[in-house]
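Input record (one chain):
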Amino acid sequence: MICWLPCQSLLIASSSSITVGVSPCVPSQVKMKYFQTVAIVALCLNVAWAEVVNFKKCPGEEKCTIHEVSISPCPEAAEGVACTVYRGTNVSISFDFTPEFAANELTADVSWTQPNFDLPFVGMDTAACKSTKCPTVSGTRQTYAYDLPIKKSYPPKHYDVKWKLTGENSESCCFIVQINITKKSKRT
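The corresponding structure, as predicted from the sequence alone:
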Protein backbone atom coordinates (compact mmCIF):
# COMPACT_ATOMS: atom_id res chain seq x y z
CA MET A 1 0.00 0.00 0.00
CA ILE A 2 1.25 3.55 -0.85
CA CYS A 3 -0.14 6.78 0.63
CA TRP A 4 0.93 10.43 0.90
CA LEU A 5 1.69 12.08 4.25
CA PRO A 6 1.18 15.83 4.81
CA CYS A 7 4.84 16.85 4.41
CA GLN A 8 5.21 15.15 1.03
CA SER A 9 6.69 12.00 2.49
CA LEU A 10 5.88 8.71 0.90
CA LEU A 11 4.70 5.87 3.11
CA ILE A 12 5.16 2.38 1.69
CA ALA A 13 3.73 -0.44 3.72
CA SER A 14 4.06 -4.12 3.13
CA SER A 15 3.34 -7.12 5.31
CA SER A 16 6.93 -7.17 6.59
CA SER A 17 7.96 -3.48 6.92
CA ILE A 18 7.01 0.17 6.66
CA THR A 19 9.27 2.59 4.77
CA VAL A 20 9.07 6.38 4.78
CA GLY A 21 10.80 8.41 2.08
CA VAL A 22 10.66 11.85 0.46
CA SER A 23 8.69 12.03 -2.73
CA PRO A 24 10.64 13.10 -5.81
CA CYS A 25 7.44 14.70 -7.12
CA VAL A 26 7.21 17.66 -4.74
CA PRO A 27 4.64 20.20 -5.96
CA SER A 28 6.01 23.48 -7.36
CA GLN A 29 4.38 25.50 -4.56
CA VAL A 30 6.39 23.59 -1.96
CA LYS A 31 9.58 24.04 -4.01
CA MET A 32 8.91 27.79 -4.31
CA LYS A 33 8.39 28.14 -0.52
CA TYR A 34 11.62 26.22 0.03
CA PHE A 35 13.62 28.51 -2.28
CA GLN A 36 12.04 31.63 -0.74
CA THR A 37 13.03 30.41 2.72
CA VAL A 38 16.59 29.65 1.59
CA ALA A 39 16.86 33.11 -0.02
CA ILE A 40 15.66 34.88 3.14
CA VAL A 41 18.06 32.89 5.33
CA ALA A 42 20.96 33.68 2.97
CA LEU A 43 20.12 37.39 3.06
CA CYS A 44 19.94 37.37 6.86
CA LEU A 45 23.27 35.56 7.11
CA ASN A 46 24.88 38.08 4.77
CA VAL A 47 23.71 40.94 7.01
CA ALA A 48 24.75 39.02 10.14
CA TRP A 49 28.24 38.44 8.72
CA ALA A 50 28.83 42.11 7.90
CA GLU A 51 31.66 43.40 10.06
CA VAL A 52 31.00 46.22 12.51
CA VAL A 53 33.67 48.87 11.95
CA ASN A 54 35.03 51.81 13.89
CA PHE A 55 33.69 55.21 12.88
CA LYS A 56 33.59 58.74 14.18
CA LYS A 57 30.86 61.35 14.08
CA CYS A 58 31.29 64.28 11.76
CA PRO A 59 32.26 67.50 13.56
CA GLY A 60 29.18 69.46 14.64
CA GLU A 61 26.81 66.49 14.17
CA GLU A 62 24.11 66.95 16.81
CA LYS A 63 20.84 66.06 15.05
CA CYS A 64 21.46 62.34 14.62
CA THR A 65 22.75 59.29 16.46
CA ILE A 66 24.77 56.75 14.48
CA HIS A 67 24.51 53.47 16.39
CA GLU A 68 26.57 51.08 14.30
CA VAL A 69 28.34 50.95 10.92
CA SER A 70 28.98 47.65 9.12
CA ILE A 71 31.06 46.96 6.01
CA SER A 72 31.24 43.67 4.17
CA PRO A 73 33.71 42.29 3.38
CA CYS A 74 36.00 43.71 6.07
CA PRO A 75 37.87 41.06 8.04
CA GLU A 76 40.14 43.83 9.37
CA ALA A 77 37.26 45.11 11.53
CA ALA A 78 37.97 42.41 14.13
CA GLU A 79 41.37 44.05 14.65
CA GLY A 80 39.91 47.57 14.79
CA VAL A 81 41.77 48.78 11.70
CA ALA A 82 40.61 50.31 8.40
CA CYS A 83 38.89 48.00 5.91
CA THR A 84 40.88 46.98 2.85
CA VAL A 85 38.70 47.11 -0.25
CA TYR A 86 39.68 46.11 -3.75
CA ARG A 87 39.27 48.12 -6.92
CA GLY A 88 36.77 46.57 -9.31
CA THR A 89 34.67 45.02 -6.51
CA ASN A 90 31.56 45.97 -4.53
CA VAL A 91 31.42 46.68 -0.82
CA SER A 92 28.20 46.52 1.20
CA ILE A 93 27.82 49.22 3.81
CA SER A 94 24.98 49.57 6.27
CA PHE A 95 24.41 51.69 9.32
CA ASP A 96 21.76 52.10 11.99
CA PHE A 97 20.83 55.67 12.80
CA THR A 98 18.23 57.68 14.68
CA PRO A 99 17.58 61.11 13.20
CA GLU A 100 16.38 63.84 15.54
CA PHE A 101 14.53 65.42 12.62
CA ALA A 102 11.77 64.45 10.22
CA ALA A 103 12.37 64.46 6.48
CA ASN A 104 10.29 63.45 3.47
CA GLU A 105 13.40 62.83 1.36
CA LEU A 106 17.06 62.17 2.12
CA THR A 107 20.07 62.82 -0.08
CA ALA A 108 23.19 60.68 0.29
CA ASP A 109 26.57 62.35 -0.06
CA VAL A 110 29.77 60.31 0.09
CA SER A 111 33.13 61.99 -0.17
CA TRP A 112 36.81 61.52 0.52
CA THR A 113 37.37 63.97 3.34
CA GLN A 114 40.61 65.96 3.58
CA PRO A 115 41.61 68.57 6.17
CA ASN A 116 40.86 71.44 3.76
CA PHE A 117 38.16 70.04 1.44
CA ASP A 118 35.93 67.09 0.57
CA LEU A 119 36.13 65.34 -2.80
CA PRO A 120 32.80 63.75 -3.91
CA PHE A 121 32.69 60.00 -4.47
CA VAL A 122 32.03 59.57 -8.21
CA GLY A 123 29.16 57.28 -9.25
CA MET A 124 27.23 57.36 -5.98
CA ASP A 125 23.44 57.15 -6.14
CA THR A 126 22.36 60.17 -4.08
CA ALA A 127 18.70 59.07 -3.70
CA ALA A 128 19.02 57.78 -0.13
CA CYS A 129 15.36 56.77 0.09
CA LYS A 130 16.21 53.83 -2.20
CA SER A 131 18.39 52.51 0.63
CA THR A 132 16.37 53.41 3.72
CA LYS A 133 12.78 54.11 4.72
CA CYS A 134 11.37 57.54 3.86
CA PRO A 135 9.91 59.69 5.20
CA THR A 136 12.11 59.62 8.29
CA VAL A 137 10.47 60.11 11.66
CA SER A 138 12.28 62.03 14.38
CA GLY A 139 13.47 59.69 17.14
CA THR A 140 12.86 56.50 15.12
CA ARG A 141 15.80 54.15 14.56
CA GLN A 142 16.28 52.89 11.01
CA THR A 143 18.87 51.26 8.76
CA TYR A 144 20.52 52.48 5.58
CA ALA A 145 22.09 49.79 3.33
CA TYR A 146 24.00 50.39 0.09
CA ASP A 147 26.19 48.35 -2.27
CA LEU A 148 29.12 50.58 -3.13
CA PRO A 149 31.11 49.85 -6.30
CA ILE A 150 34.84 50.46 -5.86
CA LYS A 151 35.80 51.56 -9.36
CA LYS A 152 39.07 50.49 -10.94
CA SER A 153 39.81 54.17 -11.60
CA TYR A 154 40.04 54.99 -7.85
CA PRO A 155 43.68 55.50 -6.81
CA PRO A 156 44.89 52.90 -4.31
CA LYS A 157 45.53 54.60 -0.95
CA HIS A 158 44.11 55.23 2.53
CA TYR A 159 40.92 57.32 2.68
CA ASP A 160 38.76 58.90 5.34
CA VAL A 161 35.27 58.52 3.85
CA LYS A 162 32.49 60.87 4.97
CA TRP A 163 28.97 59.44 4.60
CA LYS A 164 26.17 61.97 5.02
CA LEU A 165 22.37 61.72 4.73
CA THR A 166 20.73 65.14 4.48
CA GLY A 167 17.04 66.07 4.73
CA GLU A 168 15.34 68.86 2.83
CA ASN A 169 15.91 71.27 5.77
CA SER A 170 19.72 70.67 5.67
CA GLU A 171 19.62 68.55 8.84
CA SER A 172 21.85 65.52 8.53
CA CYS A 173 23.24 62.25 9.82
CA CYS A 174 26.97 62.00 9.20
CA PHE A 175 29.95 59.82 10.08
CA ILE A 176 33.51 59.16 8.89
CA VAL A 177 34.96 55.71 8.31
CA GLN A 178 38.44 54.72 7.15
CA ILE A 179 39.15 52.42 4.19
CA ASN A 180 42.21 51.34 2.25
CA ILE A 181 41.64 50.94 -1.49
CA THR A 182 44.09 48.58 -3.09
CA LYS A 183 44.64 46.77 -6.36
CA LYS A 184 43.37 43.25 -6.51
CA SER A 185 46.43 41.01 -6.47
CA LYS A 186 46.76 38.29 -9.05
CA ARG A 187 46.89 34.70 -7.85
CA THR A 188 50.17 32.93 -8.42
